[in-house]
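Expect sequence, tokenised fold; for instance:
***
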Amino acid sequence: MLTFGRVFVATTVLFSVCLAALLAHVGIDFAGNMILSHDAYDDVRHVSRAGVVAFEALVALGSVVSALSLAALELQSGNAQLRAILRRSVGRAPAGFVLRVVAGSLVALPAMECFDTLARDGNVAGLADLLGGSLALGLAITVACAGAVALGVWNAMHLLLRSCRALVAALGALILRLERGGGR
């Protein structure tokens, strides 16, 4: 059974993977233009980027709704559900979260480029082409982007964990204000 906590964790990982893959996609395109005379990303319309941004927005909305739902449940029940879920999912060290995001990005990025290449001419030459024409460059940029995004999101989740009480109090104040007719 899916719970708000599992949905929050899953959407946070998915958000991180999509953001990392998108940044790596742009980074590989930029690096390929600077370093290589002709890279595999040249002459390819990157239509997948718009789809990933739209999907990213939906996933982010899911994360926010999950967090607010948990905060509302915590406000109603008095149980520290949001803090407990965050504590379990964030952990003390970022290694597990970083590994999940890196692994997901190493799947998502080639999938994006495969979509773009198939939309262009239906011909995918190989994994190196899906990573901009250079396996080493593509992997290095993808791992670096995924690691940076994962660390940033992990730190943001720790910040949320430290500010749970304030979030729940603010949500309670907002609900009370709305119940009173929104008056100032």
Q: What stands out?
A: The first helix runs from residue 4 to 35.
